[in-house]
Amino acid sequence: MSADFHHLMLVFTAYIIGAASPGPSTMRIMGVAMQDGKSALCLAAGVVSGSLFWGGLAATGISAVLTKYSHVLVVIKVLGGAYLLYLAFKAVRSALKTDEQLAKGSGMPQKSSGLKLYQRGLLMHLTNPKALLGWIATMSLGLGAGASQSTVVIILAACAILSVTIFCGYAIVFSTAPMVRAYQRARRVIEGSLAIVFGAAGFKLLLTRF
């Protein structure tokens, strides 16, 4: 029992490191949170849903089919890379706008509806093949040949809780007053940084092989 507990802790630690490390999803949540906390929570909910979708696929073994037929992952990679480049373009446009232009309602991300932001977060994670591969690694680490159905349920349930805590936690922490003031002072730098992250991640997906 002790060995099983320590093994599960290893699995959860690996998941936390993978999910909480800076990436396109966490960076976008942080960027939106510093403008509007509720919008960031909607975006985070979409990211969490996408993560759980990949987790469900990995747990049911469908991921094995995806890894066998590599062309499916290639399609996901191309879609993900294109979407990240689109986000980079939007971040560049926002960085180039003056505060006066933004104050006149020139298309800030928080103006979007909660449903639209949820869809953006969901699409961002569904077109991220690294999220799928991360779940494959998590399940491969957590499930041995004799793993029971209860072990699968425990891993999925715990990772779901961790996913909500991590992504929604980013949304809440970065929507606090000090973070909002920091965003207002460094809006262009932050949007420029987002553009670099999205652009680099997008090109990496398009130009590298699995």
What would you say this structure looks like, in words?
By secondary structure, this protein is an all-alpha fold. The chain has one domain (2-14, 25-207). Helices cover 83% and strands 0% of the residues. The radius of gyration is 18 Å and the shape is globular. The protein starts with a helix and ends with a helix.
What distinguishing features does this structure have?
210 residues; 0% strand; single chain; mainly alpha
Briefly characterize the structure.
The chain is mainly α and 210 residues long.
Mind sketching the topology for me?
Elements: H1 2-20, H2 24-33, H3 37-60, H4 62-68, H5 70-96, H6 99-103, H7 114-126, H8 129-142, H9 149-173, H10 177-185, H11 187-207
Helix pairs in contact: 1-8, 1-9, 2-3, 2-9, 2-11, 3-7, 3-8, 3-9, 5-11
- Characterize the overall form: globular
Supply the number of structural domains.
1
**Ends apart, CA distance between termini:** 36 Å
Number of DSSP-assigned strands:
0
| Major beta-sheet overview | none
- Low-confidence parts: 105-110
Find the structural class using helix and strand composition.
Answer: mainly alpha
Number of helices: 11
Q: Give the overall average pLDDT.
A: 78
- CA gyration radius, whole angstroms: 18 Å
Helix fraction bin: over 70%
Strand/helix succession = HHHHHHHHHHH
% residues in beta strands: under 5%
